[in-house]
Amino acid sequence: MSEFLLDVKNVKTHFFTDKGVVKAVDGVDFKIKKGETLGIVGESGSGKSVTSMSVMQLVEEPGKTIEGAIKFKGEDLLQKTTEEMQTIRGNEISMIFQEPMTSLNPVFKVGEQIMEVLMLHQDMSREEAKNKAIEMLKIVGIPRAERVVDDYPHQLSGGMRQRVMIAMALACEPSLLIADEPTTALDVTIQAQILQLMNELKKKLGTAIMLITHDLGVVAQMADHVIVMYCGKVVEDAPVEELFENPSHPYTKGLMKSIPSLDDDKRRLDSIEGMVPHPLRLPKGCYFEPRCPYAIEKCKTHKPELKEIASGHKVSCFVATEEVR
Amino acid sequence: MLKYILRRLLQMIPVILIISMLLFILVQAMPGDPIQAYLGVNSKVNPEVKERIKAKLGLDKPIHIQYIMWLKRMLTGDFGESIEYKRPVSEVISQFIWNTFLLNIVVFILAFGISIPVGIICAVKKYSRTDNFWTVFSLIGISMPSFFFGLLLIFGFAVNLKIFPISGMITAGSRYTGLAYALDVAKHMVLPTIVLTIGSLASLVRYVRNSMLEVIKQDYIRTARSKGLSEKVVIYRHAFRNALIPIVTLIGIWIPTLFTGAIITERVFVWPGIGRVLYHGVIMRDYNIVMTLNMFFAILMLMGNLLQDIGYALVDPRVKVE
C-alpha cells in the first residue's frame, strides 16, 4: 500500500447532455495522506462537488467517470462493483453535505438514521446500534443525547443537524470523510463550532478529510494541503502555508484578494472580473485567460499544464511558471 | 389524538346541519311533481285525491316546517319511504349500497395496488420504455370516456367473444348459492372493474410517479446513498416513506367514493348499485332517497377529510394534530 490513503489520477467525469458533453471534471489529480486534510477550493461550477461524487461513485446520470483511477487504500474504486462500493460508502468513506436542513430524512428519527449505518456496516443489533448512536451524538457535542436520539430532524436547529450528520458520517470510523461545503449554510458562530469539532474529531479518530469549500478562510483554518479548481481542472496545488504565502495562479491571487481584511480600509472588496465560462463554450487556450489580468498571447491558443515551481507547489499557468524560470 | 378526533367530530355537527338545509332547499326547488311520480306518470287522478296524498306525505306544509319535520325523522333514524320503490329508504339503500361497495373496493385495491409500484418504477426509471408506456397509457386512460370504453369492452368480450356477461350482477334466473354464486358475481364484475380501474390508474400512476420524482431529487436521498444503502433500501424505505405523504391525501379522497358509486359505469353495465338508485331517485323526484343519499355522501366526505388529516399525522412526523 502506498503512503497515500486516496490517490486520484487523471479523473475525468463528463456529463453527456443533449446539448453536448459537459466536462465537469477534466483530468484531476490529487492525493490525500492518512489523517491529512485536503482543501478543494473553487467557485460554483468549478467541479468540486462532482469530484467528490466521483470518489463516492455517486455521479448521477447523464454523468459518468470515463477515465482515470481513484485509488483508495491501493484499490481502484472505479473498478469496484456497485455492491463493493456500497460496503465502502458510509463505512470507509463517508460524506457530509452543505445543507443540513435537507440532508436528513424528515420522516425518520435522527437516532434511527445513525443506527442504520451501524446495523448495515458493523452488524450491530438494534440495541447496540442505539447505544453507539447516543455515544456518537455525545461525541459531536449534542446535549441530552439520550433524548435527541428519538427526535425528528425538524425538531433540531441547523447546527445541531449538521452535528447529527457528522455523527452519522463518523459512526463507522471511516478513514476518509468528504465534507462538501459543510459550513456554508450555517451562521458564522455555528460555522466556527462545526469546524472546530471536525478538527478535534480528525485528531481523535485519525480521519482524513477532503474539504470542499469556496471559503479560503475555512481552508486556512482546516487544511494541510490545498488544490484550487477552475472549470474542471486543477490550476494550483500546494501546501496550505505555501499557497497563502505565495499564491501563483492568477485565479488563486484573485480569490485571495476577495477575502475581506481588517487592516484594509477599502470600501469595496476586490472581485474577479468576468464570469466563469459556459461549460459548453470553453475558451480554446487557458480557461482562465478571458478573465486573467496577466494573460499573454500564448494563453489564448495553448493550454498550460501543471508544473512544479517549488517543492510540492504546482501551478498551471504560462506566466507563473515562466516568471520563476 | 383522541381529543382531537372528538373535537373534529363535534365541529362536523354544524357543518352537517348547514349542508342539510341547503340540500333540502335545493331538492325542494327541483322542478317536477312528486305526487304525479308517486301515482305513476300516466295515471289520471282527481285533484282532491292528489291533495289528500300531498297532506299524507306532509308536502302541503310550508318549507321550514317540512324541514324541521324531516330533520326530526332523520335524527330518529327514520329516513321515510321511497316513492319509487314503495319501501323504507333505509331498506332500499342497504339493498344496493353493498353492490356498489363490492365493485369499488375491488377497484380501490387494484388501482392502488398497481399504481404505487408502477408509479415508483416509472419515477426511478424516468423516460425509460416502461415509463413512456405508462405515460401513453395514462393519456389514453384519462381521455377515454368510461361509457365509451365500457361499451367497447361489452362489444368485444361479451358480444363477440362471449367470455363475460353483458350486464347485471348475477345471471338472470339462476339460483346459485355459495361458491357458485360468488363466481357468478365475479364474472359479472370483470368488465366494470376493468373500466373503473383503468380510469383511476391513469391519474394515480402519474400522481405516484410525480410525488416520487419530487422526493428522489431531495438531498436526503443523496445522503442515504452516501451511507452505502442499497438502491432498494434507498427507494423503498427512504424515498417511498416520503412520497407516501401526498398519496395519503388521495386515499382520503377515495374513501367516500367507495360508497358513492360510479353512476355512468353502473348504468352501462346495469350494475344494481347505489349510483343507479340516486339517478333514478332524481329522475322520479324521489325526495327521500335523494335527500338521504346526499346527506350520507356529505357525511362520508367529511369523514374522509378527517381520516386524511389523521393519516397525515401518522405518516409525517412534522404534522401534529392539535
TrEMBL record, chain A:
Keyword DNA damage in annotation:
no
Q: Which keywords does the record carry?
A: ATP-binding, Cell membrane, Membrane, Nucleotide-binding, Transport
ABC transporter domain: from which residue to which, for each copy? Answer: 6-256
Any one cellular-component term (Gene Ontology): plasma membrane
Does the record's keyword annotation contain Nucleotide-binding? yes
Classification via PROSITE patterns: ABC_TRANSPORTER_1, ABC_TRANSPORTER_2
Topology class, membrane = Peripheral membrane protein
Q: From the Swiss-Prot or TrEMBL record, state where the protein is found.
A: Cell membrane
Biological process (GO) annotations held by this record are:
peptide transport
- Which superkingdom does the taxonomy of this entry point to? Bacteria
One GO MF annotation is: ATP hydrolysis activity
The entry assigns this protein to a family as follows: Belongs to the ABC transporter superfamily.
| Identification of the protein by name | Oligopeptide transport system ATP-binding protein
From TrEMBL, chain B:
Regions crossing the membrane: 12-30, 96-124, 136-159, 189-208, 243-264, 287-307
State the annotated membrane topology for this chain: Multi-pass membrane protein
Task: Give the domain of life.
Answer: Bacteria
Q: Where in the cell is it found?
A: Cell membrane
BP-aspect Gene Ontology terms:
transmembrane transport
Q: Which InterPro entries match?
A: BPD_transp_1_N, MetI-like, MetI-like_sf
- PROSITE patterns (UniProt xref): ABC_TM1
* Keyword Transport in annotation: yes
Which SUPFAM superfamilies does the entry link to?
Answer: MetI-like
The keyword Transmembrane helix is assigned to this record: yes
- Alphabetically list the UniProt keywords: Cell membrane, Membrane, Transmembrane, Transmembrane helix, Transport
**GO annotations of cellular component type:** plasma membrane
* Residue ranges of domain ABC transmembrane type-1 in the record: 97-308
Q: Which family does it belong to?
A: Belongs to the binding-protein-dependent transport system permease family.
Official protein name in the record: Peptide/nickel transport system permease protein
State the organism of origin: Paramaledivibacter caminithermalis (strain DSM 15212 / CIP 107654 / DViRD3) (Clostridium caminithermale)
